[in-house]
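Before relying on records like the one below, remember that each one covers exactly one chain. Contacts with other chains, cofactors or solvent are not represented anywhere in the record.
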Amino acid sequence: MIKKITSLFAGAVAALLLTACGSVDKETVIYANDKGFAEGQMGDTLRSSFFDYRVDSACLCGEFEGYTAADGYELLVAEITVHNIFDEGITMYDTDFQVQWNSDAEDARDWPVTFYLQEGESLGRDVLPNQYDLEKAESRTGLLVYEVPEGETEFSIVYQEYFEDESYGDIFFVNFSAEHKQAP
């Protein structure tokens, strides 16, 4: 009997320690509201009609895998996880995820750098390509690299649903701050 009590007590203490250390995560899933808008923070999962996506981390740097930002710009490197929740396989594109930054300028947004590369060019194996397939229930984690104006630190990675009938659906924003660090 003492062994059972000790074992139960040890298990409870281990669970508390894991929770305190951040090893046990409670995932937040955010759906669009009745106005077709969803907004989350880094680490939140946003659920669209086709897939879930989450921005896991982000940093700013001047160079990534030999690619250097243009004058007046730096690179935003964001790790993103995409999980197909649709009933069949889907094709993903780099243009699915646009970056926006805090600015009054009308063009305060851009596509990933992969959108501008020549066919066959790559930024490395960890960077999501300009097109890839996700089978039903498949997940993929990879990097998105964007050129952003120097000095910007507040960003949103945005996805808007687009349907086969060429209509638009809900729009999703993951808002976050990024600091200068060594890119992953």
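The chain is about 10% helix and 45% strand.
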